[in-house]
Amino acid sequence: MKRKDNAFFRWFFGETDTMLGRVEMRPQQEYTETASDIREVMQDSLTQDQTGDEEDFVLIRVFHRLYRVAAVFFCVALIAVLLINVSWLPKNGGADNPVNNEVSARYIESGLQETGAVNIVTGMILDYRAFDTFGESNVLFIATVTVLILLRLDKEKKAPAKKGMPVYQRPKDELTIAQAQSRDRIYEPKNNVILQVVAGFLVPILFIFGIYVILNGHLSPGGGFSGGAIIGAGLILYLNAFGFEKTERFFTEKTYKWVSFFSLTFYCLAKSYSFFTGANHLESGIPLGTPGAILSSGLILPLNICVGLVVACTMYAFYALFRKGGF
Amino acid sequence: MLGPNLFANYGEAVAIILFGIGFSNLLLQKNLIKKIIGLNIMDTAVYLYLAEKGYIDGRVAPIVTNGVQEVGAYINPVPSGLVLTGIVVSVSVTALMLSLTIRLYRRYHTLDLDEISTRLKKEGL
Questions:
Q1: Chain B residues touching residue A104 (CB < 8 angstroms)
Q2: Could you report the predicted ipTM of this complex, rounded to two decimals?
């Protein structure tokens, strides 16, 4: 396939950097740390309280003391002002408080007919306010991507930096993924029998319970977010008991990528009809079914499944990235 | 100056005090991890406040049971949805802050914010 040669594609394939020359960039200084540096820092932190040259730092010490006093004073003042505000609020639990206005009345009175969901909160967040929930799923996805950028390790050691190399092309001076794996095995227990037996019982139950919570999101308390978190917890337990070799058989970076991509895309496409109908009455043409049946309430069930998949993958991805710097 | 409902609104009052505790943690702690814990306490306070605002005496959670659809039967569903949004955003923000902390620790071998800023100045950045 012949590639078009324009600015976007050149940027996309990493040949040029559009920021170069337009944004002021200072090269980061080479950071080398010797053993004596570390010793000096440790010594400093050990003897910080007993150093003799306090006179030179009188101003700093005064500032620190003042800062602490001011911080405590500010916090107490903030609490006092807010407590006075709370004391003037209408009584908690009153039915005629201004919070309980016509919006919530409308959701309760006609939510079942309009969305088909028995759980009014689910009907609200996945039908009336579905774009809000789409944004939330995207927030989770973007957070994972950012953590991936910050913590991911290279597969193999790259060639050392040359003089005059731009900052963004220099290899990171960090462990490779194999080194991280071997370190991970030092600090984590290996083949812990108690953990493995308990995980063997618990992980299937956790998965089934999470799937139940997701599928019944429109009928009972729960939904995509809580069910996804339960499944993510099950995955983390499995990983802790059996290690990365076992989880890599069914969950890798590729799995994460495709599951998140398809879930978010399906969500976006499924809810886009309200753009085309002008967001007036959301005439979707999808039957709402009988309230209370598992296959009811139109799009809410598939949307719940999408959200649950995104959340489960995100939880597992966070854990794997923090522990090893990769999936 | 003090209004009449401070003790009737004890849930909100507890939320405010928790918020203050979290905020003072954020200001007083030097350790980055403890700062993040303080921010999470503040998040929790906000959830508690929202949940208290949505509660109505003697009513049940907004799940239609037995076909009852009167406004007088259920609590306000809007704050529940807002708490959900808050939890998701706080999870993401916490993960982001923790990963930034890990990067700082890898470079400076300390979590003390004062020491990190001193060494940043020493490096001339």
A1: 71, 76-78
A2: 0.88
